């Protein structure tokens, strides 16, 4: 196997998630990951800043998808419907990638408190950014921030249910159910 | 001034928050705090495990108040009303303490990323615990978790507005406004 391959990034992610499950996140080195993926450490560092970034590299694309969907939502949609479109876009992104990476990633994160903290921070940042995108559409405060928080909360709950539930369900269906439940709570 | 005083804990908290504002959280030592409060370091450690705990010691009492209020809410209340009662109890606890500690604390936390992380983790734990308390009342999933997330999100937004707004407003009034806005978002 040559050192260069167009799918080195994907192989590195797959190798990393396998090793984190086998040896734990702390017990895995970048050298281990590169070896399992059949590439050099240098190749690893061309794709990821460190072994933690393998788990969080998708956050930027997810936030971009959320903010684009919020900006593109129908003009007359309610704040929650607009923020919900952001969460639908995030779920669609994860569903379209397919494979078991998200589930395995969740198991690794659940086993490591500092990774859990980082995951919560990413969600908090997504809620804040979503609130900002709603303000940019003219939604006043506190409605903009509240809709961002509520929609990300629904995503969080839908995601947890998806991970815990049968493997053939889509994340989108769980997020949709959570978003649909929100207005029934009051 | 004697080494023992019935209000050593309060004086330590006040001294700490002053020093964190003057010298930064990182630039302040336990020895500095004890000296300013007129007590020994040993007295500091009888009250707080470390200098960070001065800022987060109130979290346990707040979570206890929230969970007690959720358990005591009227039987026929909606999930959001029940979770909202939890947030009202948290706001009342902070308002009843009075003084400028919460505002000064927020400024210290805003200036330090690792303290911000801890604050977000405390809020995430509060949302999870609130969802659990709703389940214990018989609220099904995903409604229980969603109501916990949405109510804590409203508390978070109300708190931020309270900190940013005029000093004579109560936290309770901002939290109430945020809770009242939630059902209008959809």
UniProtKB/TrEMBL annotation, chains A, B:
<dbReference type="GO" id="GO:0000976">
    <property type="term" value="F:transcription cis-regulatory region binding"/>
</dbReference>
<keyword id="KW-0805">Transcription regulation</keyword>
<dbReference type="InterPro" id="IPR050109">
    <property type="entry name" value="HTH-type_TetR-like_transc_reg"/>
</dbReference>
<dbReference type="InterPro" id="IPR009057">
    <property type="entry name" value="Homeodomain-like_sf"/>
</dbReference>
<protein>
    <submittedName>
        <fullName>AcrR family transcriptional regulator</fullName>
    </submittedName>
</protein>
<feature type="DNA-binding region" description="H-T-H motif">
    <location>
        <begin position="29"/>
        <end position="48"/>
    </location>
</feature>
<dbReference type="GO" id="GO:0003700">
    <property type="term" value="F:DNA-binding transcription factor activity"/>
</dbReference>
<keyword id="KW-0804">Transcription</keyword>
<dbReference type="Pfam" id="PF00440">
    <property type="entry name" value="TetR_N"/>
</dbReference>
<feature type="domain" description="HTH tetR-type">
    <location>
        <begin position="6"/>
        <end position="66"/>
    </location>
</feature>
<dbReference type="InterPro" id="IPR001647">
    <property type="entry name" value="HTH_TetR"/>
</dbReference>
<keyword id="KW-0238">DNA-binding</keyword>
């Amino acid at each position: 196997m040559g050192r260069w391959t167009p799918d080195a990034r994907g192989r590195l992610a797959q190798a990393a998630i396998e090793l984190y499950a086998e040896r734990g996140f702390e017990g895995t080195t970048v050298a281990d990951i590169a070896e399992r993926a059949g590439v050099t450490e240098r190749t690893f560092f061309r794709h990821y800043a460190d072994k933690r970034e393998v788990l969080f590299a998708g956050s930027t694309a997810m936030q971009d998808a959320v903010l684009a969907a919020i900006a593109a939502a129908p003009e007359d949609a309610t704040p929650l419907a607009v923020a919900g479109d952001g969460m639908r876009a995030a779920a669609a992104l994860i569903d379209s990638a397919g494979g078991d990476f998200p589930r395995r990633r969740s198991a690794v994160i659940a086993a490591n408190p500092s990774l859990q903290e980082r995951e919560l921070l990413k969600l908090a940042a997504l809620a804040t950014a979503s609130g900002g995108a709603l303000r940019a559409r003219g939604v006043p405060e506190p409605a903009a921030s509240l809709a961002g928080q509520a929609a990300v909360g629904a995503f969080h709950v839908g995601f947890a249910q998806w991970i815990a539930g049968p493997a053939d369900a889509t994340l989108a269906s769980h997020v949709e159910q959570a978003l649909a439940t929100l207005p029934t709570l009051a």
